[in-house]
Amino acid sequence: MLQGSAWTPLDSASFRAEQPVRHGPTPRVEDFPGRKATLVARRDIAAALDAEKAWARVALDTIGDAVLTIDLHGAVTHMNRVAETLTGWSQPEAIGKPLSRVFHLVDGKTHQTTVTPGRRAIEENRAVGLALDCVLVRQDGSKLAIEDSAAPIHDREGRVIGAVIVFHDASQSQVMLERIAYQAQHDALTGLPNRALLTERLSRAIGLARRHRHLVALLYLDLDDFKPINDSFGHAVGDSLLQAVASRVQDCMRDIDTVCRQGGDEFVILLAEIRRPEDATRVAEKLLAVLGRPYGIQGHELLITLSIGISLYPDDADDADTLMHNADTAMYHAKRNGRNGHHCFTAEMNTRPLQRRRTEPGLHPPLQPSQYVFDF
User: Fold this and answer.
1) Nearest to 223 by CA among 297, 304, 311, 284
2) CATH number for domain 188-351, candidates 3.40.50.920, 1.10.150.20, 3.30.70.270, 3.40.50.720
3) Percent of the chain topping pLDDT 90
4) What is the CATH number of domain 61-174?
5) Which residues are catalytic, by number?
6) Which residues form the PAC domain (predicted)?
7) Fewest C-beta atoms under 10 Å: which of 9, 63, 192, 340?
8) In angstroms, how far is CA 259 from the centroid of its own chain?
9) What is the pLDDT of residues 66-80, one digit of tens each?
């Protein structure tokens, strides 16, 4: 017994319960906040999934390809706007319909129905491509050549639950390929063949000339004193002048000839089939006369001259690169000899040094905008 303390028996009545006694396990207060947190977490996950679905719908409607999804039974579950346009079906109409009805494919040659890539993707559990020459029969019965691919859709456990089909108008794809090929071989400003296409055609022309024993000529054109026009009136006027020059040169040529913009204010003309060297000089004289006429460009009247160099196959060279080099050399000799003329290549030109320079800064003072006529 502790000193200074006394033990006093307590009356059991003081422990009388004021409420009925509950049998069973006593509830734990901390269980309720846990359940609340779980519910909040589930709501957050559901909201995140809804936001992700909304983002996916916007993304699918924004891309340029058509997208269509199906379930394991082959029923349509989603279509983006491009898919609606290409198939002719709206999404409300298509949802739940068999894929074979909404996305009806036939062979372009036999017109027989073909197996859709979506079904193959599900059955083979891999990405598959569309067979060549497949045609989509749209809702109105019209037909459209398409290109597509399909891939299986998996759940979190890796089980296949459907497939996604991505397709586009094959004609648009062909147009794009043709546009890219054209841009790779043509000058953006004038639309003329560029250096790459000229080289290809020149090599072909030399091969034909070797076989049929005729001549090929290259005319290398450079506009005299083009730089002062850009300096005085700006590049917009200069670009318009180059386009006008390109148009006039093309009007002077035959269908079998090639006019190329080599770069800057330089042009090259391939005369694929000529009989005599005089045919090339006659073309050069015609160009000097036609291109020397005034140009009306954005309210200004402009006059230009040009220097032309000429080289011939097989007289001056028997390959494309050397023929181009010799025409370029002859053009610079034409500039040195007074400009506004033409000069044929000779072997002596390669034995004499020639300083090749464009218009030097300060050589030509900028022309005043009030000077509408240029006479170089």
Assistant:
1) 304
2) 3.30.70.270
3) 58
4) 3.30.450.20
5) 265
6) 130-182
7) 9
8) 25
9) 999 999 999 999 999
